Amino acid sequence: MNFTVSIKDRDEPISVEMGRTILDAAMLAGGPFPHSCRSGNCGTCKCRLLSGEVEMSPFSEFALSADEEKRGFILACRAVPWSDCEIELADEDDQMVHPMRDMACEVKAITPLTHDIMSLRLSILSGGPFTFTPGQFADVALPDQPARSWSMASQPDDDFLEFYVRILSDGRASRYLADHLQPGDQVRVKGPSGTAALREERRGPILAIAGGSGLSPIKSIIDRAAKLGWAEPVHFYFGVRDERDLYLVDHFEGLCAAHPHFHFTPVLSAPSDAVLKAAQRRFGLVTDIVKEDLPHLSPSGTLEGFTAYLAGPPPMVEAAERLLPDLGIAPNAIHADAFYSEA
Ligand code: FES
User: Mean pLDDT over all residues of the chain?
Assistant: First the structure.
């Protein structure tokens, strides 16, 4: 038995098989539907239930607050319809509209960036052209592997796609990438997706915070801002554990030299003794360092008017989501992509 889910202001309703989530059905139907973690943790798939009944499986309070729930919001990745429904997508203005592509790509290069992060560079063989907004991601399926959501580090007008991928010891797809994938192999890429992407029309100061492979979308965002001649300050904090986890430092230092109002601050949370003694870096949690730097970020002592982009491990992203409204950034100007790992 199937239920019909209509999306306000969209022509095609979705047919949802009993027991499936609205997001699953929307993805199966091939239409664009905002999503990221697919596990009730990020809030990207938030929408308002206008009519009908759904059952929600457990989700994080960061994705959907009790207040939002009371106001009728649901998470499409957690909501299983029990009747025909009508929903309205949240923040329709903030959705990135690019055609969804399902592309065959060829591996051009696989390059280690740190001891556990690799760059995967692809060229598109068929199914393009592919456009996206910097900060978005795509689902990448390596040969005979489950698809994984990886963010583009490249620019929309580059003639290649690049992803920075953390190699997880128990990660099926990432281990395959590290141990077996070769230049010349073919992979499938479906996308783009995600809403934690650069708002080009919202000119103003930017605060970007990345951790680990979260550098991928943040690099795309910052490079794009540089390309656009962003006139307002851009502050980028890159949090990692130790010196060996840093990468692309030269790239960002070069960018700051060329654009004096761009600022790059690497932060080490668990430095080795030798690094600690050399003391050329900032040490601690990246969110504590942002708080400490508030007087430099804004002499007025508030980050009102800033737009924030966050990407990386969930504890870092969640800590920043808690902190930034206290520092004056409007909640709707905080765009976050927490990387939930899939084995
Ligand atoms: Fe539904 Fe992340 S995609 S909460």
Answer: 92
- The domain spanning residue 254 has which CATH number? 3.40.50.80
Q: Does the CB atom of residue 37 touch ligand 1 within 6 A? A: yes
Q: Tell me, yes or no, whether 200 lies in a domain.
A: no
Has residue 199 been placed in a domain?
no
Atom of ligand 1 nearest to the CA of 34: 3
**Residue owning the nearest CA to atom 4 of ligand 1:** 40
Atom of ligand 1 nearest to the CA of 36: 3
Residue 164 lies in domain = 101-193
Atom of ligand 1 nearest to the CA of 40: 4
Q: How far apart are CA 121 and CA 112, in angstroms?
A: 11
pLDDT in tens, 269-282: 999 988 887 778 99
pLDDT in tens, 186-208: 999 998 888 889 998 888 999 99
Among 63-67, 89-93, 158-162, 325-329, the least confident range: 89-93
Q: Is residue 231 domain-shared with residue 278, that is, in the same domain? A: yes
The strand ranges marked E within the chain are 2-7, 14-17, 46-51, 54-56, 73-75, 79-81, 85-89, 101-112, 117-126, 137-141, 148-151, 161-166, 186-193, 206-211, 234-240, 262-268, 282-283, 307-312, 334-338
Q: What pLDDT was estimated at residue 91?
A: 64
Examine the domain organization and report whether 212 and 332 are in the same domain. yes
Ligand 1 center–CA 142 separation, angstroms: 23
Q: Is the CB of 40 under 6 A from ligand 1?
A: yes
Is the ipTM value over 0.90, yes or no? yes
Query: What is the tally of structural domains in the chain?
Result: 3
